[in-house]
Design a protein that fits this description.
about 230 residues, single chain, mainly alpha
Length: about 230
């Protein structure tokens, strides 16, 4: 029974989005409450929200909106917005390497690069943008959905271990664990969406093949009747 529940949970995009929303709300609130406890001023806290939590705030807005009709209607546009913010986050992590080079900053850059590419490839391949850029024929298509998923999950796990080794306070442990859960569920969300799209494409291909076979059979029948 437990195994079935776990399988249903990991295979349910709806459940995953609800959990992501909850995690992001807790993560944003806790990170700011810790900032207040450290006696940071209003200016520093506001700067922290804009800089550190900007991606989380945008992600929260994204996942909340896609639960409603307006978000589903403008789903592709919301994907573009989230993609742009992760792209900006990737550039930010690149500059971080020059400021403080280390294994943790390299892992952060690797994750941001891969999640941005994976997100763009998964959500844009079958859109007008994807067809214009020919994403289905790009080098990104050489790596299958499962490989992207496990590669990113591996980076997330290693990043958590590295972060916990150098942790200085209990508050940091809580934030790192929440970030880990969010990133893991985000990767799972992208994975499930790509699986859904791939399944639809296979069904379309199968339907086309069935139509071709039926047309050939009907032609043969007509030819045999004519004879």
């Amino acid at each position: 029974m437990n195994n079935n529940k776990e399988k249903d949970f990991f295979d349910s995009p709806s459940m995953i989005t609800y959990i992501i929303i909850g995690l992001l709300i807790i993560l944003i609130i806790l990170s700011q409450s810790f900032a207040i406890q450290n006696n940071l001023g209003a200016k520093e806290i506001f700067t922290s929200i804009i800089n550190y939590n900007s991606v989380y705030l945008v992600s929260l807005g994204y996942f909340i909106l896609i639960r409603f009709k307006i978000g589903k209607r403008y789903f592709d546009y919301l994907n573009v917005v989230l993609f742009v913010f992760y792209l900006l986050s990737t550039f930010a992590s690149l500059f971080t390497i020059f400021q403080s080079f280390g294994f943790d900053s390299l892992l952060s850059l690797a994750f941001n690069v891969l999640i941005t590419l994976y997100f763009g490839y998964s959500f844009f391949t079958n859109t007008v943008i994807g067809r214009e850029l020919k994403l289905s024929n790009s080098p990104l298509a050489e790596i299958n959905n499962g490989q992207y998923y496990y590669l990113l999950m591996g980076i997330i796990v290693v990043s958590l271990i590295v972060a916990l080794i150098s942790v200085n306070s209990f508050e940091d442990v809580v934030v790192y664990l929440l970030e880990f859960m969010y990133q893991a569920l985000l990767v799972r969300y992208i994975y499930l969406y790509k699986e859904f799209i791939d399944h639809k494409e296979l069904e379309k291909t199968s339907e086309k093949k069935d139509k071709i076979v039926k047309n050939k059979r009907s032609k043969k029948v007509k030819e045999s009747d004519g004879e």
